[in-house]
Amino acid sequence: MPKPDESRLIPKNLPDFQQHFPNEEACIVHLYTKRFPTGFVCRYCEQHEGDAGPPYSFVSRPTVYRCRNCKRDTSLTAGTIMHRSKQPLCSWFWAAFLVTSLTPGMSAVQFKKMLGIRRYETAFQMLHKLRAAMVRPERGSIGQKFPVEVDETFAGGATQGKGRGITDKVLVVGAVEVMPRRESDKWGGRDPNLMGGPPLKHRGGHGRGILAGRLRLQVIPNRKQETLVPFVRTYVAPGAKVRTDAWIGYEPLAEQGYDHEKVAVCGDHEKTDKHLPMIHIAFGNLDAWLLGTHHGVSPQHLQAYLNEYVFRFNRRFWPMVAFDSVLGIAVRAAAPSYEGLYKGAWEHPGT
Ligand SMILES: [Zn+2]
Fold this sequence. Notes:
Layout: H1 14-20, H2 24-35, H3 49-52, E1 56-57, E2 64-66, E3 73-75, H4 89-101, H5 108-115, H6 120-132, E4 148-155, E5 170-180, H7 181-186, E6 210-219, H8 225-235, E7 241-245, E8 259-263, H9 269-275, H10 277-292, H11 302-314, H12 319-330, H13 338-343
Parallel strand pairs: 4-7, 7-8
Antiparallel strand pairs: 1-2, 2-3, 4-5, 5-6
């Protein structure tokens, strides 16, 4: 994890946000420094403004810069989740701030109301694009230092208005690091995953002497070995200690080089809770969040919500840093188009 940059702009509250981003121009300036931290670089001829001089700009098109060398135009939002959006940058900044500073996030309906957006689809699409920016392209595997609990659950599902027992719930696999609480004390009460961040306010762990570390979640089609084992291999570091139940789907983990600890829980809740406490807390909170904030989620979009949940979970002790993080990631993330979202052509990156 890179050291947090002291110069990053992290609004602490609404007045602070308003002071930093009072208008469209302030948002443009901020995005410009994010995209071109060392000065303008032409995306076509790669000329740096230090050599060619600052790009030409236009009053009528404030987010377009023309290279002095090759005379081609670069849009400030090209390649970002905000590209070709009819919404002003201000709205995107508000969106990133609200989504990251409200603990449970926001539903598209609430978001539409708060930002005064006319169409539900616009609000829905903006939130989904922000979710695409919540997956760090370079996010690594977990479990290098701590044991990892892995299990599956059914999540999502808008069950309202349907018959009893009929559900759209989707199979999800999760992995979470388990850290001894005394370990976090060694770091002065700071999360080892985000060293340099502010000290933890709450410790979590429900008085168990343990603390949840980083989380990964993915929608899966089934519980077969050929599904579960690649998930672990993708997201859990080689050789890590992995705790699961005795399900046959995890059987090959030992021969794959993992220190596999399995316990037959046979649906016994007490046993499960003792053996895999952290992943079940994560699953329980996920369920509450999907229902409470979003009133259920359709299977087609569930991975995007899982991404948002993981983003929140992994940054839960300092939500304000997430604002900067979403904007920082946003300038690099590829975003789904409107058609992609609705026709299902866009595949949400796994977490
Ligand atoms: Zn150029």
